[in-house]
Backbone:
């Protein structure tokens, strides 16, 4: 089995791979299928980071000399670019954070904590990453609130119908991921936001696995908060963003206090500065912001619709090929639609063994619980193997995985 | 065939044909090691009289390395004293316990093939699961043999 099993070839020559020096030049033999963990960087992003340090580097919002002003302008331009990238009404609504994780924690501690009361509810879903689960679990426990969970249906989609009381009064916030980092499915964010809006309940959407892979417009989604990270959309690590509707941000307190966020400070009091600066204490990550914006520009130039179509085609072909293997169980089943992420288990082969054998064959996939233990517990699994596709992948990458699977079967199965 | 490949073959053989794997009924003590990150779980039973470990047996589920390591450990320890087992456990913790800087110790030939795993820091925990279970069992048997 398998070695003859080649995927239908929707993409034999990838024109974008040459933009990524690590994959094209340094490791041309590597088949990188771990894009849900992190993505590689195009040369334009690397150049932008180098330029940030070699040409425009200086203090932001702090200096009155030309270089400081240039640095500030570059930082604010990056904010504009990213706000535009996700369709925010204004760049004021985009706050730079260290990561999507930090953005979620900012909302948990800065927005939810001051207004959550005993008996209130926060709804999360069964498929949340720990980063969008633990902050809510903690805040509910701290405030005597209920953490409620929207469960899964057989097909891997969320069972919104059974989420009793979701839009009722005790619910103070609904939290959900746009695309699951394990199951790959996309949630009906727009519909949930519309109903929540009618009930006056804010919604936070974790967009880490959606942004950069498909067109995203936060105003069309009509969510209150939206979080995403740079390094999962071909940008640098160490930077992420929180989008919030301006009226929500006005209600939110900063997570960190320090330089750059205040108007006035005396011995006993301080007054907060304007939005978004009040949420960005400490010297901002200039090179990170510039690299992040460069990634957005890179994707805008290609077109997010094109990115989405290309990767979806490859993903469908990979799904078809894997579903032909009788010893492979897809999670969820074959008929559930997904975009860039495919989780599976192979009979008799521990996911860690599979990932290691694949790794030695030059194929990078992920194995384990993917930071989704509540989901794994529900599925009754300890882990899965996961392939996740990016812009630079092509049919050869998926074929290499199919070969590696064969090797694993011979060695371990 | 490289030494590395030879070691890998030894590991695979232990995985495919694990030694001393099975029922722990009648064991003097049983210790448990688990890795919540991957759900792997090994129980080690000591069949002993006096200071001697007549037989070391294990059961559980895990990846190939986890099972192979437990099988190799059971072979290396059966017929040894509990003090020797505790000493070997210290060696193994030094060998695999502390990241890349872990001190390389001379190992008994029966465990040498595990050196193939040293280059995969992410898998070291898999090797050590059975040794953690052993530590727990030895401590239950003799309180002077404190787990590390």
Residues:
């Amino acid at each position: 089995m398998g070695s003859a099993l080649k995927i239908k070839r929707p993409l034999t020559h990838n024109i974008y791979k040459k933009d990524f020096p690590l994959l094209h030049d340094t490791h041309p033999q590597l088949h990188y299928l771990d894009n849900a963990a992190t993505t590689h960087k195009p040369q334009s992003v690397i150049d932008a980071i180098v330029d940030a340090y070699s040409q425009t580097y200086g203090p932001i919002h702090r200096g009155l000399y030309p270089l400081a002003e240039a640095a500030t302008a570059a930082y604010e331009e990056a904010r504009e670019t990213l706000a535009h990238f996700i369709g925010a009404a204004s760049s004021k609504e985009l706050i730079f954070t260290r990561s999507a994780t930090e953005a979620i924690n900012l909302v948990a501690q800065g927005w939810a904590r001051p207004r959550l009361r005993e008996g209130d509810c926060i709804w999360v879903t069964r498929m949340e990453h720990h980063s969008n689960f633990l902050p809510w679990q903690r805040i509910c426990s701290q405030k005597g609130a209920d953490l409620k969970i929207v469960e899964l249906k057989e097909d891997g989609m969320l069972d919104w119908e059974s989420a009793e009381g979701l839009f009722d009064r005790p619910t103070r916030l609904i939290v959900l991921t746009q695309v699951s980092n394990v199951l790959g499915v996309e949630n009906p964010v727009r519909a949930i936001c519309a109903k929540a809006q009618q009930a006056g309940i804010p919604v936070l959407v974790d967009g880490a696995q959606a942004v950069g892979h498909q067109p995203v417009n936060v105003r069309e989604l009509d969510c209150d908060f939206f979080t995403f990270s740079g390094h999962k959309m071909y940008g640098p690590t160490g930077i992420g963003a929180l989008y919030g509707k301006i009226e929500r941000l006005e209600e939110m307190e900063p997570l960190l206090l320090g330089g750059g966020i205040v108007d006035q400070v005396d011995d006993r009091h301080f007054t907060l500065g304007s939005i978004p600066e009040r949420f960005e204490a400490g010297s901002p990550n200039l090179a990170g912001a510039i690299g992040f914006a460069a990634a957005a520009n890179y994707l805008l130039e290609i077109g997010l619709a094109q990115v989405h179509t290309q990767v979806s085609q490859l993903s469908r072909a990979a799904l078809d090929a894997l579903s032909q293997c009788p010893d492979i169980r897809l999670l969820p089943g074959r008929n559930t639609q997904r975009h860039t992420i495919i989780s599976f288990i192979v009979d008799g082969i521990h996911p860690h063994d599979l990932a290691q054998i694949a790794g030695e064959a030059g194929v990078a996939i992920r194995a384990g619980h993917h930071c989704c233990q509540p989901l794994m517990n529900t599925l009754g699994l300890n882990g899965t193997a996961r392939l996740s596709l990016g812009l630079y992948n092509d049919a050869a990458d998926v074929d290499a995985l199919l070969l590696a699977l064969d090797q694993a079967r011979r060695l371990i199965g | 065939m490289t030494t590395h490949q030879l070691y890998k073959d030894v590991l695979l053989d232990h995985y495919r044909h694990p030694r001393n794997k099975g029922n722990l009924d009648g064991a003097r003590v049983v210790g448990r090691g688990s890795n919540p990150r991957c759900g792997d779980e090994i129980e080690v039973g000591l069949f002993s009289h006096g200071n001697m470990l007549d037989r070391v047996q294990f059961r559980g589920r895990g990846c190939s390395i986890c099972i192979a390591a437990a099988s190799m450990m059971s072979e290396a320890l059966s017929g040894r004293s509990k003090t020797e087992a505790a000493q070997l456990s210290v060696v193994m913790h030094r060998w695999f316990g502390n990241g890349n800087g872990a001190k390389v110790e001379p190992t008994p030939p029966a465990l040498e093939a595990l050196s193939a795993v040293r280059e995969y820091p992410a898998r070291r925990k898999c090797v050590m699961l059975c040794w953690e279970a052993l530590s727990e069992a030895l401590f239950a048997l003799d309180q002077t043999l404190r787990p590390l």
